[in-house]
Design brief:
Length: 502
């Protein structure tokens, strides 16, 4: 009995687990058996690997080949194991030395002629290999720039199985990353292009500074979408750790660019209003893929015409909004994806959506039912509500407003103040702070929070809404450079929660 060994990574969500692959060449009729809970794509790898080895010029062993993937109880999904399967068989056959193979993790899909194709989830797989203490990882050449984002591990690129075999034998070298290209600033438009709407612009600045969720209502063509699209331009660049988080999610989604693999600016995701709950939250058969809420992690999720979305889609967002994480349960386990995003909702006030309220032809019941899809528990999680109105002075002769760069400078200063205040807890924005911390460790004077206490006593808002109003008050305080919110900051925060229903 001859055994060969190789290693790969199983990725679930954005977490990876090392998988050991053993190859046993025994007596019997020529055959290949794969064990270890493989899915259909992995079962088919038996034929891919065998053809790739033969077309590379190597001899496939005569006899019964058993390939075991451990841990055996972990479901194995996808074609990422092809390269490691081929290497383990060649190791068992004595065709390649074991020294380098024993220290290297292998990732990649094989074509029938031996080329190594890229797979989804390379970045989280490389991070898992580094965290497990491995010194080297071989990835497809097409994924080299993506895998090269990870420090602390030697990342090599193989264009074909023949290149890997030559490297294992000491007869050739594999490719290395030439550097990490940095993506340019997102083309999201400038805030100066939005004419008028001073209140909505101020609300957008507060939302950017504190990481708050925002609802914009108003007639069509008034600037709701333009404002939402310019929010990423007000946000500071992502930190190094945040960039890797976001890039890992997009790696699992398969949406990374070859030219710009590292995402350094806040993503902007705007699904169509006909999207399904699975596309919004994540899921699918086999590997649970990240949905729109996870692809918007550390960025902006914009739902235009939110009143047209299905009720199930809207209600499914309540848990991600509260916890900043998505847990997708499947038969074989639970996939976890981060989902800490800013939600921007935009809606018309009614189905007919006239330019002026007096021109509305909708029945009162239809008008109430239209925005009735936005349930109370969901609206409780929205920090800022703004009702936008047409402005007579917002025409072609209006003066140009502040640019995104000017507003972003104020936002960055406010975020730095918040990050410094919450440094010992690890929070970066006011929107992340739990309510009990605001009520206990950072309790405001009784006269300052009196308006909130009054609203609670009269039943005008829930305890969750009160916590969110205090968070917004802290953000307004940071924007004006004060150390602690004053009564006017709390009143302004409460005013934001009342404008959406006017």
């Amino acid at each position: 009995m001859v055994l060969g060994h190789a290693h790969s990574v199983a990725v679930t969500g954005v977490d990876g687990l090392l998988v050991e692959i053993e190859a046993d060449i025994g007596q019997g009729l020529p055959s290949v058996h794969l064990v270890g809970l493989p899915d259909t794509a992995l079962q088919e790898s038996r034929d891919r690997v065998r053809s790739a080895v033969a077309n590379t010029g190597e001899k496939w062993p005569d006899g019964r080949v058993v390939l075991a993937l451990s841990p055996a109880t972990l479901p194995k999904v996808g074609s990422v194991y092809d390269l490691a399967l081929a290497a383990s068989v060649l190791d068992a056959a004595g065709a390649v030395p074991s020294e380098k193979l024993a220290k290297t993790v292998l990732l990649g899909e094989l074509s029938l002629d031996g080329r190594v194709r890229r797979v989804r989830g390379v970045l989280p797989a490389v991070i898992a290999a580094r965290n497990a203490g491995w010194s080297a990882v071989v990835v497809p050449e097409a994924s080299l720039s993506e895998a090269g984002l990870v420090d602390g591990i030697d990342v090599l690129g193989a264009g074909s199985l023949r290149m890997l075999i030559a490297w294992l034998r000491g007869e050739g070298e594999l490719s290395r990353s030439s550097g990490v290209p940095i993506d340019s600033e997102a083309a999201c438009g400038d805030l100066s292009e939005v004419v008028g709407q001073e209140e909505a612009r101020w609300a957008l600045e507060v939302a950017a500074a504190g990481g708050h969720h925002l609802l914009l209502t108003g007639p069509p063509g008034i600037g709701k979408t333009m404002l939402a699209q310019r929010l990423p331009g007000l946000l500071p660049p992502l930190s190094e750790s945040e960039s890797l988080e976001v890039t890992a999610v997009h790696s699992m989604a398969g949406t990374l660019s070859d030219d710009q693999p590292l995402i350094t600016t806040a993503p902007f995701v705007a699904p169509h209003h006909s999207t399904s709950a699975t596309a919004m939250i994540g899921g699918g058969s086999g590997t649970a893929r990240p949905g729109a809420v996870s692809r918007a992690h550390r960025g902006v999720l914009f739902l235009d015409e939110c009143a047209e979305l299905g009720t199930k889609v809207l209600e499914a967002m309540r848990t991600p909004l509260e916890e900043g994480e998505v847990r997708i349960a499947r038969r074989d386990g639970v996939a976890r994806y981060p989902a800490r995003f800013q939600l921007i909702l935009a809606a018309n006030p009614c189905p007919c959506a006239p330019a002026r309220d007096v021109d509305c032809i909708c029945a009162p019941l239809a008008r109430r039912r239209y925005l009735g899809k936005l349930s109370g528990p969901l609206m409780d999680r929205i920090d800022i509500w703004v009702r936008m109105h047409g402005q007579a002075g917002a025409g072609f002769g209006a003066e140009q407003s502040e640019s995104s760069a000017v507003v972003r400078a104020r936002v960055i200063v406010a975020r730095q103040a918040a990050a410094q205040r919450w440094k010992e807890f690890g929070w970066l924005t006011n929107a992340e702070v739990p309510g009990h911390i605001l009520r206990q460790r950072f309790r405001l004077p009784a006269e300052t929070v009196a308006p909130v206490e009054t609203a609670l006593r009269l039943g005008r808002m829930s305890a969750r809404a009160a916590d969110r109003a205090i968070r917004v008050a802290w953000t307004i305080c940071d924007l004006r450079g004060a150390d602690q919110p004053a009564t006017q900051d709390v009143l302004a925060a409460l005013n934001f929660r009342q404008r959406g229903g006017q």
